[in-house]
Task: structure prediction
Amino acid sequence: MADPIDRRSFFTTGFRRALGHAVDAVSNKFSPGQYTRPPGALPEASFLAACTRCGECTTVCPAHAIRPLGTEAGFAAGTPALDVNMNACLMCEDMPCAAICPTDALEVPQDLWDRVKMSAITIDTERCITYRDVECGVCAHACPGGENALRIDSRRHPVLGPDCTGCGTCIQACVTSPSSIKSTTIGRPS
Result:
């Protein structure tokens, strides 16, 4: 038999759920876009509520890849974001950006990079020179995630794998101009 829930717990749980739905609705209205957040970020609505916009994560990023969003981001203005199409995350082993966060908006995951997904990476097969029988593989060699993130297959084409974090290193390494590899934001559950 399940433990009976007391009246206070019942109302507290209900209030938290209602508050969560309200935060989701408000954040969707006042934060018009989806953003690539630094590693260890909470789901978007919770992230927006927890982030104090202190800028600590931006100052410790060795790649200077984390930037505060501008006023066009509405309620998300001042929060940290990445544009890995322009500047890749280095996938620092100790995640200094998450470690320095004074709130729980960013937290170093216990399994570090194992389940981090910052953005979705795609390879444009129309632009990638390996699809024109030119040997390359620079993107896979540069990938900090290893062969389970990005590898070259038997036909000498790059193939994304399940360990891809969306860091953008492959985008920056690509020899085509503009890059044959792109990143898009991923929707995070609230």
Summary: The longest helix spans residues 7-30. The helical segments are 7-30, 44-50, 56-60, 96-99, 138-142, 169-173. The first strand starts at residue 66 and ends at 68. Residues 21-185 form one domain.
